[in-house]
Specification:
CATH class of the largest domain: Mainly Alpha
Distance between the termini: 50 Å
Radius of gyration: 23 Å
Strand order of the largest sheet: 1-2
Structural class: mainly alpha
Order of helices and strands: EEHHHEEEEHHHHHHHHH
Number of strands: 6
Helix content: 40-55%
Number of helices: 12
């Protein structure tokens, strides 16, 4: 068994095996298909290389004449190719089952292993209007908001909790994000954001955050509801009063709290109302607008109507994480024998699934 070790001279870091292999296979692909050279080399590199041409794709030359397989008919600048790959590779992620149990906060692995041409042209925004999913090696880009003619399509490159940690990840792309969410974080102030990051790291590093997915739904991990309520209060204090309701850090903590309450609700069904309230707070913190927050009494909304506004999906890379709160809300209403509201929230989860993964609009 061999061991591959390489240093990426672009990022000044040790390269992952998948990154090294992707670079090697890109070389093989371009060597064997020289007509692809400009398609790859005209993607955006890092300095000190010159910016790419202003238009894409470039004209594709006809290089399909018979030739000796070991004759390279195009110039392959490996350093430039490594530069392009480092700046444009994606990490394909398989579709996963929706988990009722909250997972570790802000896992954002950085192990890109595939180079896609046209998707590399999408610019970043923390408040993306499109999302990407993978079916094996096939990437699908789906709109998650109404995109008007001439409006730029953007995707989110990172999932860090604040503008300051996000921009640390974005430094390798040589730009500073100026989306409205980052600007709001900067208005809160660097000290407040660092405090927010510290609180996120605190819960992420606790034993219960590392092992939470090892506990069955009927067994509560060793964490107190009061400690999570205190954490919500502390994180809330890091936001200014003018900050928008979009607060992704709070979304995850509300989901953690709802999960622990749901375990206790099996012995005390009255807690299901509190579970629903926490799940709704989690959804609102992702940017979704909940238009029906009622938990008791006769529902005034039609059975087939959704309890959320569907003009756009959640902000950033929060789409899949919104399905679990919707499903948990539907399950909680089922436990309360409120099947009308349960069906409406189940339809909302189905809408979120369609938004992220499926073509069509029937829900």
């Amino acid at each position: 068994m061999g061991l591959i070790v390489a240093v990426n001279v672009v990022t000044n870091s040790v390269g992952h095996n998948c990154q090294i292999i992707t670079l090697a296979r890109t070389v093989e692909k371009v060597f064997g298909n020289p007509e692809l050279r400009d398609l790859v080399f005209h993607l955006c590199p890092r300095p000190p290389y010159s910016p790419p041409p202003s238009s894409y794709p470039p004209p594709i030359p006809n290089c399909k004449s018979l030739r000796h397989p070991l004759d390279c008919v195009v110039d392959l600048d490996i350093a430039l190719l490594e530069n392009v790959c480092s700046n444009n590779m994606y990490m394909p992620q398989p579709l996963q089952y929706v988990e009722f149990k909250p997972s570790e906060l802000y896992r954002d692995p950085d192990t890109p292993s595939a180079l896609y041409l046209l998707p590399s042209l999408f610019n970043h925004s923390c408040t993306e209007n499109a999302s990407r999913i993978f079916f094996r090696e096939v990437m699908v880009i789906r709109a998650k908001a109404n995109i008007h003619k001439g409006e730029e399509i953007t995707v989110c490159y990172t999932n860090e909790p604040t503008a300051f940690t996000r921009n640390q990840r974005l430094e390798k792309y040589q730009f500073r994000c100026t989306c409205w969410l980052c600007e709001e974080d900067r208005t809160d102030g660097e000290e407040a954001c660092r405090r927010r990051d510290e609180l996120v790291n605190r819960i992420r590093d606790r034993d219960h955050a590392k092992t939470m997915t090892d506990f069955p739904l009927t067994q509560a991990p060793p964490v107190s509801v009061k400690s999570l309520e205190s954490l919500i209060q502390q994180v809330s204090e890091t936001y200014t009063s003018t900050h928008s309701p979009v607060r992704p850090v709070l979304a995850d903590i509300h989901k953690h709290l709802a999960y622990h309450l749901s375990v206790r609700a099996k012995d005390n069904p009255r807690l299901y109302h509190q579970v629903i309230a926490e799940e709704i707070k989690a959804l609102e913190a992702t940017g979704l607008r909940v238009i029906d927050k009622s938990t008791r009494g006769r529902s005034r909304q039609p059975r087939t109507s959704l309890p959320i506004n569907t003009d756009r999906g959640p902000v950033g890379r929060e789409g899949e994480s919104c399905m679990a709160p919707m499903l948990m809300t539907a399950l909680s209403f089922t436990s309360l024998d409120d099947l009308v509201r349960a069906e409406r929230w189940l339809r909302a989860a189905w809408w979120c699934e369609f938004l992220e993964h499926v073509s069509g609009s029937t829900y």
